[in-house]
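User: Predict the full complex structure for these chains.
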Amino acid sequence: MASHFFLMMLFSCFVSVVFAALMRDKPEEQIRLGARLFAAFVLAGVALGWLMYPFPL
Amino acid sequence: MTKYSRRTRAQAPAATNVESSTTLICLVAWAVPGAGHLWQGRIRQGLVFIVTLPLMFVTGLWLEGRIFLFDVSEPLVALAAVADFGIGLLYVLGRVMDLGSGNAVAATYEYGNSFLIVSGLLNALVVVDAYDVSLGRK
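Assistant: Here is the predicted structure of the two-chain assembly.
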């Protein structure tokens, strides 16, 4: 339940929903923007995670 | 010059009313996330905010994040407190109920802090949006 990936997805979901509701007025546009933001957040998170993989803490 | 003065005097009470209602809308929007939009008839947006932002804040508490107190001796803590404070009455309620003491050794501590801080910052954006709506810019 508290895996890093799940929490990142949950965080992305909250932020995407709020930004979509703030930045668009029509429901269809809100859904489209929200989905795109969510996908961008998750993909960027995974990509950054892999980029950091070679660097030890 | 005379005409201008008369018009200004006639419009002054109306302008004051608009300003005071805008201030009130911003205060309400800060205190209860989404309430500013609900007040102005933006029901769908208001419902999204009134559900999402408190849920995000509560998730932060569930993840054992910390509600930061204002401490000017530590600038980063003070900034985090300002961000947390953006969520409005939930911040006050959390402090009064002694929630959000934070568990620094928990694996989810930093996640919890992120959820708490970002929920406050997002509500600050929502307040700015409610302000714009009240001025007719949106």
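The CA atoms of residues 100 and 120 of chain B lie 14 Å apart.
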